[in-house]
UniProtKB/TrEMBL annotation:
Protein name, per record: Cytochrome c oxidase subunit 2
Start and end residues of each Cytochrome oxidase subunit II transmembrane region profile domain: 1-91
Pfam families hit by this protein: COX2, COX2_TM
Name of the gene: COII
Domain named Cytochrome oxidase subunit II copper A binding: residues: 92-225
Source superkingdom: Eukaryota
GO-annotated biological processes: ATP synthesis coupled electron transport
GO molecular function: copper ion binding; cytochrome-c oxidase activity; oxidoreductase activity
Requisite cofactors: Cu cation
Membrane topology category: Multi-pass membrane protein
Details of cofactor binding: Binds a copper A center.
Chain ranges passing through the membrane: 26-43, 63-85
């Protein structure tokens, strides 16, 4: 989860998020280099005493400031396109979960288990136990097996919502009448928090998302207990 005065992204909990973090660092270095060059040129132009009012054109400079931005854009675009294709790749998922946004809670349907359907409401402050997070904890977490490809089918019942878990690198719009899909792999066990990321009404900020990644045997015990309940 995010913490106070955090400047960067959350720690990656999936391979896609690791790729996004690497791309962010890669693009940020290009921004720093460009900013440094522009600042140097501005400073030089403001401090120099040399002037030349007779220069009408400079083909060499024109070529440099046309070719250099093109190279920079290519260097940034190629890794970006690679990650876009990786994010759209869904092959042989081990588990498919349908998340449906409501005003203002989420409901989950595990399509591999016909009867495993539950709603996930935010816990009110007075119901929290020590160690739980205000405005982020829910009564029923979405538990998934770690190191397994998970396919999410995301929709909404009433208005626009958005199912987002930053540490997983997942953010997909939930649109009424439309089924969007995304995928993720939890690379380590843990509890990962997210929130609806599309303004959906008065209680938009009170419909959190909690994904708990656990070893396969723990997931099987949880699913059995949920089916028996």
């Amino acid at each position: 989860m995010a913490h106070p005065s955090q400047l960067g992204f959350q720690d990656a909990a999936s391979p896609i998020m690791e790729e996004l973090l690497h791309f962010h660092d890669h693009a940020l270095m290009a921004v720093f280099l460009i900013s440094t060059l522009v600042l140097y040129i501005i400073t030089t132009m403001m401090t120099t005493k040399l002037t030349n009012t007779n220069a009408m054109d400079a083909q060499e400079i024109e070529m440099v400031w046309t070719i250099m931005p093109a190279i920079i854009l290519i260097v940034i675009a190629l890794p970006s396109l690679r990650i876009l294709y990786l994010m759209d790749e869904i092959s042989d998922p081990h588990l498919t979960i349908k998340a449906i946004g409501h005003q203002w809670y989420w409901s989950y349907e595990f399509t591999n288990y016909e009867d495993l359907v539950f709603d996930s409401y935010m816990l009110p402050t007075q119901s929290l136990t020590p160690g739980q997070f205000r405005l982020l904890e829910v009564d029923n977490r979405m538990v998934v097996p770690m190191e397994s490809p998970i396919r999410m089918l995301i929709s909404a019942e009433d208005v626009l919502h958005s199912w987002a878990v930053p540490s997983m690198g997942v953010k997909t719009d939930a649109i009424p009448g439309r089924l969007n899909q995304t995928t993720f792999i939890a690379s380590r066990p843990g509890v990962f928090y997210g929130q609806c990321s599309e303004i959906c009404g008065a209680n938009h900020s009170f419909m959190p998302i909690v994904v708990e990644a656990a070893p396969l045997n723990h997931f099987q015990k949880w699913s059995s207990s949920m089916l028996e309940a």
